[in-house]
Amino acid sequence: MFEIKDKVENIADNIEEIAKTYYKLSVVNVTDKSSKLGASLFVSLFLFILFLFALFFACMGLSWWIGQRLDSQVSGFFIVAGGLFVILLLIVLLRKNIINSIRNIIINKIYD
Predict the structure, then answer these.
(1) pLDDT > 70: percent of the chain
(2) How far apart are the C-alpha atoms of 57 and 14, rounded to whole Å?
(3) What is d(CA 109, CA 104) in angstroms, rounded to the nearest whole number?
(4) What gap in Å lies between CA 107 and CA 26, rounded to an integer?
(5) Among positive and negative, which fits the CA dihedral 69, 73, 76, 80?
(6) What is the Cα gyration radius of the chain?
(7) What Å distances lie between residue 32 and 20, 26, 35, 109, 110, CA to CA?
(8) How far is CA 97 from CA 1, 101, 103, 108, in A?
(9) What distance in Å separates the CA atoms of residue 80 and residue 69, rounded to the nearest whole number?
(10) How far is CA 24 from CA 8, 27, 30, 96, in A?
């Protein structure tokens, strides 16, 4: 009778240790995935800001160049602004596809 009671207590202790270990493993996995996602988002944000600066200066140069060709600086800036407005309109029209793509990238980073 005491042997069965001892075995049941040993099993209960083992189950408790397994549960604690599983919890610790889950915490480590969540920490690992969140750190990878955070680092990826940080690098992506840095690259995006760098891209915006490059785009800004490229648009300024293109506006200036078109303005010199047309002998009207204002016309050059308005032409480039119109082109950027068309691109902005396309992004607004395709925003659901863009949002879904970004969401899929984030989910893939989490489960990678």
Answers:
(1) 93
(2) 65
(3) 9
(4) 18
(5) positive
(6) 29
(7) 18, 10, 5, 11, 9
(8) 67, 6, 10, 16
(9) 13
(10) 24, 5, 10, 38
pTM: 0.64
pLDDT tens column, 1-32 = 567 666 767 777 788 888 889 999 998 888 88
Contact 61, 53 (CB under 8 A): no
The overall longest dimension of the chain from CA atoms, in Å, is: 103
Q: Read off the pLDDT of residues 74-85 as tens digits, 9 standing for 90 and up.
A: 999 999 999 999
Task: Pick left, alpha or beta for residue 71 (phi over 0 → left; psi -120 to 50 → alpha; otherwise beta).
Answer: left
Which phi and psi angles does 70 have, rounded to 5°? -95, 0
Domain positions in the chain: 2-110
Retrieve residue 42's tokens. 């940080």
Neighbours of 15 (CB within 10 A): 10
